[in-house]
Amino acid sequence: MSRPAAATAVALLLTLGGCASPSPVLYDNAHRRSVDDAQAEQDVAECREIAAEAVKHDRSGEVVRRAGEDAVVGGATGAAVGAVVRGHSVGRGAAAGAAGGAVRSVTRALFRNNQPDAVEAAWTNRCLAERGYEVIGWR
Fold first, then answer.
1. Residue 46 is part of which domain span?
2. In total, how many domains does the chain have?
3. How many CA atoms lie within 13 A of 108 on its CB side?
C-alpha cells in the first residue's frame, strides 16, 4: 500500500471511529410521550455530561499502554519471522511487526473508546430515570 493510500485509510478510520458513539434508547413511557424530541435529547445530553464529569474516566493512558504492549509482541513476532524466513532481516521483521502491532492496538482502541464506560452508562441511566425516562439499552 502506498503512503498516500495508507494515510487515507488511517484518516478514514479516525473519522469513522469518532462518529459511532452509542446513546441511550428511551422507552416510550408516559413521561417520554409528554416531552418533545428536543427536550428528550437535551435531557440525554445533560445526563451524559453529568455522568462524564462524575466518572472522569480517561482511557488515553490505557490506549498508550496497550499500543506499547502490542508493539512489543508484534516486534518479537516480526523478529522471529525474519530470523526463520530466508532472505529476511531480523531487524526489518521486528520493525514491521512492531509497527503493525501498534497500529492494530490504536485502531482497536478507537472503536472501543466509542463505547461508554459501564459506570458512566449506569450513571446516565440513573440520571434519566430520576427525570422520568426509562432506558431500555444503548445503540
1. 24-57+119-139
2. 2
3. 12
